[in-house]
Amino acid sequence: MNLEKVVFGFFVVLAATLNFGFFIGDISDPDLHNPYELFAAVVVNLIATVLKFGDRTQIGAVHLATSLVAVLQLVAATLLYGYATHVSSAGMNESWTASVVSLSGGALLANIVSVVLLVVETVSFHRD
Q1: Would you report the helix, strand and coil content of the chain in percent, each value rounded to 5?
Q2: What angle (nearest 5°) sits at the alpha carbon of residue 49, between those of residues 44 and 50?
Q3: Domain ranges within the chain, ordered by starting residue
Q4: How far apart are CA 4 and CA 93, in angstroms?
Q5: Cα(65)–Cα(58) distance, rounded to whole angstroms?
């Protein structure tokens, strides 16, 4: 068993599940979307992105691209969340929540693509 592949797979799947946990729920209800879960999703996605830098294969490049998309969208969601809660006079209302959750949904789609790539790569692996 390759420990590097285990760690890589762990962080790819954890990134997707944390993102899903934040995303799930009514898109406009801020009580259903925990900011700490969003923060955890950002951190784990950043770790997964760093782990993807070492792979020089074509599928590794696509892994990195999906990870960069997820990080970009999650950071944008976090910035919107911070703006809504600390700067905007409206606070975290339905409109801000919908924007943040929509961005996290885009990141979730990128994470799902990454998980599918991981499964395809694993299934197509041939032992020598």
Answers
A1: 80, 0, 20
A2: 100
A3: 3-12+38-123
A4: 42
A5: 11
Backbone CA torsion sign across 12, 66, 68, 118? positive
Please, how many CA atoms are within 13 Å of residue 95, restricted to the half-sphere of its CB? 6
Q: Are 29 and 97 in contact (CB under 8 A)?
A: yes
Per-residue pLDDT of the chain (128 residues; tens, 9 = 90+): 789 889 999 999 999 999 999 999 999 999 999 999 999 999 999 999 999 887 788 888 999 999 999 999 999 999 999 999 999 999 999 999 999 999 999 999 999 999 999 999 888 876 65
Global pTM reads 0.91
CA-wise closest residue to 114 among 53, 39, 64, 50: 64
- Residue for token pair 């997707």: 16
CA proximity to 5, closest of 72, 43, 55:
55
